[in-house]
Write a structure and sequence with these properties.
Blueprint: H1 2-7, E1 12-18, E2 23-29, E3 40-43, H2 46-63, E4 67-72, H3 79-88, E5 94-97, H4 100-106, H5 118-130, E6 135-136, H6 142-175, H7 189-195, H8 201-205, H9 209-219, H10 226-236, H11 246-279, H12 282-288, H13 295-305, H14 314-321, E7 325-327, E8 337-339, H15 345-361, H16 363-374, H17 382-403, H18 415-427
Length: about 425
Amino acid sequence: MQEKIQRITATTVIVGIDVAKEVHWARITDYRGVDLTKPCKVHNSTDGFENLLAKIESVCTKRVCDQVIIAMEPSGHYWKAIGWYLKLHESKPMLVGVNPYHVKQSKELDDNSQTKSDKKDALVIAHLARDGRYFDLHLPEGEYAELRQLNAERKRLMSQISRANNTLIAQLDEYFPEYGKIWRNVTCQTSLNLLKKNAFPSDIESKSNELLLEEIREASNRTEGNKLMQELRQAAKGSVGVKEAREAVRLRILSLIDEFEYFEKKKIVVEAELEKVMSTLKLGDVLQSMKGIGPIISSAFLGEVGDVNRFDSWKQVRSLAGLNLVENSSGKHKGKTKISKRGRPYLRHMLYLAGEVGIKHNPEMRLYYQYLRLRKKNPLCGNQAVVATGLKIMRILFHLAKTGEYYDSGKALGEIKLQQIEALANSL
């Protein structure tokens, strides 16, 4: 934070912008937070942006200022149009963001009033930037921008798939609760194909063995037969499922199956595009040289983090993912530590997934996980150890991306950690 404050000098102009869909409000202040002009209305158009920049230039000329910092809340999507315009402008102002939560919590400091207005918010944003409570805005370009958008689309599709899956299971629990006991995954392709014709117990009971067997073979591409037929018959016999409004529910089940299959196909297309973009990047091969890291996890890492050269330490990426540890202690009370979860949720989710995959497919990460679980001092429970393993993988990926080196299994854990693992193994 000290470094951020030191950026601001007596010749710095700070502009706070409260972003909206059509009309933004801006406050142009000096390094002390004093207004240099009246609040400015900025239309979301080229003319509006140019008018703002002209006012800023006029202020800088009068006050002989050599640096402009423009701050805004990067929430939602309205800020991106003005953000990109300012980033590409020849005047090259410094773009920074402030936390929307900080704006909400600090807006009463100046006037001790809960009054909210766009003009007031713009001034609060400028004051937060003046105090060094900001972060540099990152607008990814090139392949990083492609990966960011593709990952956002994949996340959206996964959410739709999860919603359709959960709703379908809820309907089956109500109308055919025994059906779920047959399958490890109710939404596997064979199960979905069968449900299209056999959504209720009565559908199964009304069909002859020959017809039901043929439908099973067709649904499973000839991989299932009599055994599955007997299981379906047993499940349908004496089912406790609801019997009312079945035709309406049948339409809903068919619609949910269509949704599930549609979004699954779209997800495959997006993942293929992710692999295509990753294949054009040398970093793709570098990151995927680590066993267990494929195109999906590596593209999520690069898409969310961007160019790693903008970071000085892996700890900054840890904070970006919300995996930094926080504690709540006071006096003699020593609270437990936990991850902050204040960061990019998709990056955090994918690093957790990387931990799970690494434990399964990467020998070094499996050793690391087992050590975390079994060590005598501060052993971790299952989920904690998976998070810690994902964090270890993140550190390795950061190093690989930063240096361009390929994964070396001998260096993955380091000599000290290997000695600790060996000592633990000998003591067991």
